[in-house]
Sequence to fold (337 residues):
Amino acid sequence: MKKTVAFSKNAANVFFHILTKCNLACRHCYINPAQHGRQTLPLETIKAWLQPFIADGQKANVIFLGGEPTLHPDLAPAIRHARKLGYASVTVDTNGYLFHDILEKVTPEEVDFFSFSLDGATAGTNDRLRGDGCWQRCTRGIRKAVDRGFATSLIYTVSRANASELESMPALLEQLGVQRFFIQVIGLRGRSAGGGMEDTAGESPQLTQDEWLDLVPPVAHRVADLGITVTYPKVFLEKQDPFECAGLVADNYFIFPNGRVYRCPLCEDFPVHSLTLADDRLVPTGPLNEQDFFGLQIPEGCVMNRMIQPENIGYAPDGTPAARVACCLLKEEIQPH
Ligand code: SF4
Ligand code: SF4
Fold:
């Protein structure tokens, strides 16, 4: 059954970048050290920064990210501390190299999902984007996690460079034993904004509306038919769909090791974070910040999309946008029957 997932209003989702260091240098990496810092947060800081989001008995989920979070030597105690604080779920997003024998140090009861990033059904395509040997290491990591009883998900970031292989993913996902599949749209942030995807013959690495709609929903349905839950961004709103900005109606926090806390991932390349962690307390920043954009109503839908990646909006001859672009956090979910 397909449904649009309304923004979660009853739980905070905490996307916690505990370091920006990574062993890979993916061509579309959105980490931007000039904006996000180069620190590896000490365990005590991670513990202190987890606290404000779970205060007053509020429900919260945490996703540990990097850089590569398994490069952090204290990821396991950080996970256990999140559990102790009462986080409802703990996810680790990884490139699959699983450093510091992380699978030996935590249990399936402590980690709800290990979420692996893979950007091709074959080593050729994935490794062109993510680096030599990466496909093999990542698929091996998934198999190992599945063998040890961990729930796993796979994130595939669709761009012009790997769209042709999305159709081969259902068979691979089934073979690997993955439970959830997340399809992402490539954002023009970090290295992809700086030309990291330049061999796409001058074209935007993002698919057009027609290309996206022809490709992604049918593949998502095929994956769901295999018993795997699929989530993908809505991207384009239909006429009857209301537009909502998650920055106004949801409780998402994107934390970086330099203390910046954003409410909108599209803002992460700019110093417009609306919150900051200072002396281990969450405090609002002054104007001008991302909050000042969230309430702006424009015919194109998402304001930040219009500002930073306007090329994904088509216009009719009279100048009206062909479609409104949804909040990047609005998702379609297909549950297996
Ligand atoms: S996209 Fe992820 S795995 Fe790739 S370089 Fe960036 S942080 Fe590392
Ligand atoms: S992506 Fe657009 S709509 Fe979503 S939170 Fe950011 S500014 Fe708001």
Notes: The mean pLDDT is 93. The radius of gyration is 19 Å. The chain has one domain: 2-334.
